[in-house]
# Entry
Amino acid sequence: KQEVTQIPAALSVPEGENLVLNCSFTDSAIYNLQWFRQDPGKGLTSLLLIQSSQREQTSGRLNASLDKSSGRSTLYIAASQPGDSATYLCAVRTNRDDKIIFGKGTRLHILP
Amino acid sequence: DTAVSQTPKYLVTQMGNDKSIKCEQNLGHDTMYWYKQDSKKFLKIMFSYNNKELIINETVPNRFSPKSPDKAHLNLHINSLELGDSAVYFCASSPWDSYYEQYFGPGTRLTVT
# Structure
């Protein structure tokens, strides 16, 4: 059974710092992996999508990597800003069945 | 039995029309979702809905509206279709308050001409 884990559960860093959020999954048979952002009281916003054949994707200050064989993905945020404060979730889409499994998220707080 | 089903599988229509896509789940789940997948397979959540709360992604135009006749169904209505609405739309469901594990339908490929 696919399980997705995100570490740390919460993170506070001063504004301007670069940071890395981690995501691990137990079954490497994935179709793709996606990073989302959730702001309080709002739905999920898609950030980056990495197909199983890809190693990384970049969008602005965000870079996501995927190491399928080791079951890991990282989300790198450069030059963090207070507006980056949110919960970040990774989700894997499985090959074996029509499911998306989410991690429980990392709650990020950027200190002004 | 299919856990999450969608109809139709393909939908071709002209700009300006109003159309609906139906979704049904037989898993007894309390929360249902609609996603839009773009040409790069990017999955964007549009709505999440349970019998208590509808969460709408703020980027979704108000031409899109979910309608839930009962807990097992969440239909997607689209008014005044535009070319940019062409995409694959996925319905999903999960146990209440547990979006961590979502079961997806097979998708509906919408083409607006």
